[in-house]
Amino acid sequence: MRRLAALIAVLALTAVVVVGLVQASSGGNGGASGDTGQPAPNRFDLDRARAQLESAPPPLASLHDQSSELLGGGRAAFDRRLDALRGRPVVINKWASWCGPCRFEFPFFQREAVKRGKEIAFLGVNASDNHGDAAEFLREYPLPYPSYVDPKERISRSIDAPANYPVTVFIDAKGKTASIHQGGYRSEADLAADIQRHLG
């Protein structure tokens, strides 16, 4: 009888230890997102973003009307768009669907484009990418502005964007390059600081 009681006590203690370890590994909340070591899913609401940008001036509103679109036309179409935006600062982000740092920083551009999108133009350049993969990427990470397709990096070279990824180019209201940031942003605060520093 004593052996049985001892065995039950050992089993009960083992169960307590196992439950404790499981709870500790999941943060004590059943493995809620953010506590499992996995990135939280992207929750950007494009419809809400466009609603917030509704009163933007026409040149900027035209960008929001093409939210998350992949635009063709090459460098000529891109240059025409920059000409139409003359008088407005522009943030250009060169990205590709296969680029890990691009995926990491995309939420920063999503949110900053909503915060500053009534005064600053945002454009994407999708370079050296597969069209299907890029479209899928934008379904996961929608943008409140369009991206120009740049398979041979002709647009990228025209704005002096280096061959690495990602790259962010800041164009001032006079159409001059104010700064080029190579590599991904580590935080939204860093991106916001560069926008303020280079474009005001």
N→C terminal distance: 81 Å
3D shape: globular
Overall CATH class of the largest domain: Alpha Beta
At CATH's second level, what is the architecture of the largest domain? Answer: 3-Layer(aba) Sandwich
Could you tell me the radius of gyration in angstroms? 24 Å
Name the CATH superfamily classification of the largest domain: Glutaredoxin
Mean pLDDT: 85
In quaternary terms, these chains amount to single chain
Please sum up the structure shown.
The protein has 8 helices and 6 strands. By secondary structure, it is α/β, with parallel strands linked by helices.
Task: Please characterize this protein's 3D structure.
With 200 residues, the protein is α/β, with parallel strands linked by helices. It has two domains: 1-41; 46-199, 3-Layer(aba) Sandwich (Glutaredoxin). It contains eight helices and six strands; from the N terminus they run αααβαβαβαβαββα. The protein has helices spanning 2-25, 46-52, 58-64, 74-84, 100-116, 131-140, 154-158, 188-199, and strands at 70-71, 90-95, 121-127, 147-150, 167-171, 177-182. α5 (100-116) packs across α8 (188-199).
